[in-house]
Design a protein that fits this description.
Blueprint (H helix, E strand, L loop, with lengths): L6 E6 L3 H12 L4 E7 L2 H11 L3 E5 L7 H11 L4 E6 L4 H10 L3 E4 L4 H12 L4 E2 L1 H18 L19 H11 L4 H8 L3 H15 L4 H11 L6
Parallel strand pairs: 1-2, 1-3, 3-4, 4-5, 5-6
Helix pairs in contact: 2-3, 6-10, 7-9, 7-10, 8-9
């Protein structure tokens, strides 16, 4: 990202107190610029058309037009503006619906300010970002589905194989921790490396696995038996 260019943000949430709190957090980040704010999906569409922001922070539950409906419209009409959903719902149905609609990120409103800032930076650079709790719930759901569709004989065990033909040993360790629902910070702490190094590893994993984001990487790894899911 060009360090001289600020990330322009439109903030949409019908709870004024929450919106003001988020705006205050973002204004402390010198690389961000909150250019407009609104309280429903219809206003979001008008503001994005007017300001053409890099990122739209969008509440999922709003009157007149909800966040998912607004996201679908924005993705169709303003594809350069990336949408991050803000929600109180961690249910995988909400998450998958939002992602299928075109959202590049999904954050829970219980997040901390560092996660919010990291998510905006990642998404503005073309990546995707899910709240760690959301990622964990998605993984748990895939585990449940796998148990329903895969029969294992009595006394037998599923064997997991590290993809050392594709990834380095360290990248395999990072992939496993992503499957465990760890954030970049948690991965860094677990492996005693910097967050910047973690981001580099994640980027390499996505490129080598030919996927767009960490969720796709985890799902693909589970299907191929590259990570432990017991």
């Amino acid at each position: 990202m060009n360090l001289d260019k600020k990330v322009s943000i439109v903030l949409i949430d019908d709870h004024k107190l929450f919106r003001e709190g988020v705006k205050r957090i973002l204004e402390f980040e010198p690389s961000f610029d909150v250019v407009a704010e609104g309280d429903d999906g219809i206003i979001a569409s008008k503001l994005v058309k007017e300001y053409n922001p890099d990122v739209v922070l969008m509440d999922i539950n709003m009157p007149n037009m909800n966040g998912v409906q607004a996201t679908a419209e924005l993705v169709r009409n303003h594809p350069k503006s990336k949408v991050i959903i803000l929600s109180i719902h961690d249910d995988e149905n909400y998450v998958t619906h939002a992602l299928k609609t075109g959202a590049q990120g999904y954050l829970l409103k219980e997040m901390d300010s560092n996660s919010l800032i990291e998510a905006i930076k990642v998404v503005s650079e073309g990546g995707s970002y899910l709240h760690p709790k959301v990622t964990n719930n998605l993984v748990q759901e895939y585990r449940r589905l796998a148990k329903e569709t895969v029969s294992v004989g009595i006394g037998s065990r599923i064997e997991y194989h590290r993809p050392l033909h594709l990834l380095t040993k360290r990248e395999c360790e990072v992939l496993q921790l992503l499957a465990d629902g760890k954030s970049n910070r948690a991965v860094a702490e677990a492996l005693y490396i910097s967050e910047k190094t973690v981001k580099n590893h994640v980027s390499n994993i996505l490129q080598k696995m030919n996927v767009n984001d960490r969720t796709q990487a985890v799902v693909s790894a589970i299907r191929k038996g590259w990570v432990e899911v017991l």
